[in-house]
Amino acid sequence: MSPFHCLLLRFGRNRVNSFHLSHSLATATNILDSNDKIIATRISNCNNLHHLDQIYAQIIRNYFLELYPVQFHWNNIIRSYTRLNSPSNALHVYITMSRTGVRPDTFTLPIVLKAICQVLNYVVARQLHGIAIKLGLETNMYCESGFISLYAKAGEFENARKVFEQNSERKLGSWNAIIAGLSQGGRAKEAIEVFLELRESGLQPDDVTMVSVTSACGSLGDLDLASQLHKCVFQAKEMERSDLLMMNSLIDMYGKCGKTDLAYRVFSRMKERNVSSWTSMIVGYAMHGYVRDAVECFHCMREAGVRPNHVTFIGVLSACVHGGMVKEGKYYFNMMKNEYGITPMLQHYGCMVDLLGRAGLFEEARGTIEGMSMKPNVVIWGCLMGACEKHGHVKMGEWVAKHLQQLEPWNDGVYVVLSNIYASNDMWEEVRRIRAIMKERKLAKIPAYSLSTSSY
Predict the structure, then answer these.
(1) Lowest mean pLDDT, pick from 153-157, 223-227, 430-434
(2) PPR repeat positions in this chain (predicted)?
(3) Residue from 155, 147, 162 nearest 182 by CA
């Protein structure tokens, strides 16, 4: 009796679905009689993570990989796990592959790098980089761009630059990786500078490049640059052929630059819109105080049958904050939870605390904070502290200050705002006490720092 028939008997009465198991066994039996392309196709076409787990854990790991100890099949399984959004399993297979003595090849490393970028396992990443250097694959176009992305996500921009600059004949993928890494890492100006270097190199940017660059431009709020980039976008891909991601990036860029009219022009010409398209418009309107436009856009989005996500609601709630729309803010906050089943995040709570605090509804703001499912951060406390300063609320200000001092004992902004609250109530003895504490602890006011500044 073959090992596969034994396996069938062993699992015939357990919880494993008989159809899936029979299919797995039939697949495995056929695998042994098929060529490599058929093997690859059957693994690649597996669209069920549980089914793939069964194939790998019960059959492939025990029999197939021992009979076919080549990189090709290992790569396929790793790729399949990554494709099914299971990067941890992909890394586990790679580690198992290494322990069996199978050396990675030019295809293995990029696949594993993609999984590492998802789970941000920098220990394995550095080991992989060492292997790439040892195998002479560090300048492989896929490996190179993968390591650049990984180091940038880790905030190790110097290492990302080193990998990028070591190859004078770098491909567009490496340029895209460094530009995206800098843009997403809050280094928008550097991202633009690298983009200009790319243009001078003679390589033509593609839509991937332009998505990253427009995002960087939006962060800078540079309208002149935005206009130039708009032209570059359609040099990379004509508007009729432009994909959603690129068009959404233009909307986002113009919205952040304050040109919501240009953002809407792009939006209105789109043949297809997704949640990101609508959300970019809503956030753009909210960011610049166009409250009615933001709310109207949100209602149009719902009428169009597009389901809002957590970012959409950040935009809507931000609009309510700008407009002082307490009733509407509560309505949308409850809609998010009850109608769409979206669990509030720190940003949503921050908007609500800011909204209630500005309106002087301190007990409701306090209740919102105490009802949070996670610990409030300094921004949330800062919103309420700013409201206390605005309304001169001493008792609440003292309560908030205690929490802020626990989170950031070095932050003099807490003491400054508390001192201002005391001063607005003519409590000069308390003002002198706060200043004495600051002097004793050698705290100096940080220029342009304000606890009341909301990032929502």
Answers:
(1) 223-227
(2) 70-104, 171-205, 243-273, 274-308
(3) 155
Cβ contacts of residue 280 below 8 Å, gap of 6+? 248, 251, 252, 255, 263, 267
Instruction: Name the DSSP letter for residue 34.
Output: S
8 Å CB contact between 51 and 84: no
Cβ(249)–Cβ(210) under 8 Å? yes
State the pTM of this model.
0.72
pLDDT at 234: 67
Model confidence over 10-41: pLDDT tens digits?
Answer: 333 333 333 343 344 334 434 444 445 555 56
3-state class (DSSP) for residue 346: helix
Residues 244 and 277: beta-carbon distance below 8 Å:
yes
Report angle CA 265, 266, 272 to the nearest 5 degrees. Answer: 120
Concatenated DSSP letters of 305-355: TPPP-HHHHHHHHHHHHHHT-HHHHHHHHHIIIIIT-PPP-HHHHHHHHHH
Cα gap 95→24, rounded to integer Å: 24
Q: Kind and range of the H or E element at 257?
A: none
pLDDT value, residue 114? 85
Predicted confidence at residue 447, as pLDDT, reads 41
Q: Which residues of 271-294 are buried (b: 16+ CB within 10 A; e: fewer)?
A: eebeebbbbbbbbbbbbbebbebb
CA proximity to 401, closest of 373, 371, 421: 421
What sign for the dihedral angle of Cα 203, 140, 152, 86? positive
Q: Are 414 and 443 in contact (CB under 8 A)?
A: no
- The structure tokens listed for 281 are 């418009």
Yes or no: say if 183 and 191 are a contact pair by the CB < 8 Å rule: yes
The span from the first CA to the last CA of the chain, in angstroms, equals 66
User: Domains (ranges, CATH) in the chain?
Assistant: 344-456 (1.25.40)
Look at the alpha carbons of 146, 149, 154, 159 in this order and tell me if their dihedral is positive or negative. positive
Residue (of 37, 126, 124, 49) closest to 80 by Cα position: 49
**Pair 152, 182: CB distance under 8 Å:** yes
pLDDT in tens, 210-268: 899 999 999 898 888 888 888 777 666 555 545 788 889 999 999 999 999 999 999 99
Sequence-ordered alpha helix ranges (H) in 237-309? 244-256, 260-269, 275-287, 291-303
The candidate with the shortest Cα–Cα distance to 43, out of 94, 70, 77, is 77
What mean pLDDT comes out for the span 358-382? 95
H or E element in which residue 1 lies? none
